[in-house]
Amino acid sequence: MKNDVFWRYMTLMPAVVLFLALTIVPMINLFALSFHHIEWIERAAVWKSVGWSNYAAAFEDNLFRAGAVNTVIFAVVAVSIQMVLGFMLALLTTGVTRGRLFYRTVFLLPILVPGIIIGAIWKLMYSYDFGVINKTAIFLGMSPQDWLGNPHLALASVILVDVWHWTPFCFLLLLAALESLPQDIYEAARIDGSSPWQALRFITLPLMLPAIAVTFIFRMILALKVFDEVYLLTGGGPGTSTEVVSFTIYRRFFTEDRPGYGAAISIITFATVAILIFVAGRISRRRKVA
């Protein structure tokens, strides 16, 4: 019996070592880096301890604060719209049997497209001079807009791209959850004379809450890490109107060559996101138990 337990742990050991090597060790290195200032002397990195000064500087960094605010706005607005659209599409298509493979393929196309192509497509569409959006606006008698150059429109334009890109992800998860709901409850509700709206409100939504919560948390995690869409479309501009935390970290790390400070704001961001996800998970679990 003891031999069985021993070999059980031994078979897990390679996976544990690999996990530590790929996850824990880099995090420890990042954490240690956040307390240092790095100088390059004769092609070698010289670590100089600076204590908590990198963390103190982060809270006085206007660019980091602007990035944090924009990231929260981006994540909340984009994910909320994606959840509503994804749920509506899943409701509309869950009963459709003819052409199921075709429409699902069409809906899923945006998440199959590489980020660099998405950036190119939407940058052309948003072009002030020859973009299809401004051409359509002119055809309808409206004024063309500088979608990515106007500080009041740039963040909304990036959010629109993210909604187009990730709504199929929400649709796919919610559709799978909808199709797994027990149909006998709906049969009983129909026999009792409930309307479609009552079935949606009192049966579908309560049963879908765990799937909605999991989808929302997954999407929030990804949305809070947004980088490629901002990098490709606006580069954080104009001004700080589309600055996000990931892009600020990129600037501090690679453009300004401040790895110690970049590590500090990375740790702050990681800790904040982890706390938010933990709280959301606890709330979701309590609602599920209730």
From TrEMBL:
Alphabetized UniProt keyword annotations: Cell membrane, Membrane, Transmembrane, Transmembrane helix, Transport
Record-annotated ABC transmembrane type-1 domain positions: 68-280
Transmembrane segments: 12-33, 72-94, 101-122, 153-178, 199-222, 260-280
Signal peptide location: none
Subcellular location: Cell membrane
Keyword Cell membrane: yes
Classification via InterPro entries: ABC_transporter_permease (IPR051393), MetI-like (IPR000515), MetI-like_sf (IPR035906)
Main location per the UniProt record: membrane
Topology term for the membrane: Multi-pass membrane protein
Name this protein carries in UniProt: Sugar ABC transporter permease
One Pfam match: BPD_transp_1
Protein family membership: Belongs to the binding-protein-dependent transport system permease family.
The organism's place on the tree of life at top rank: Bacteria
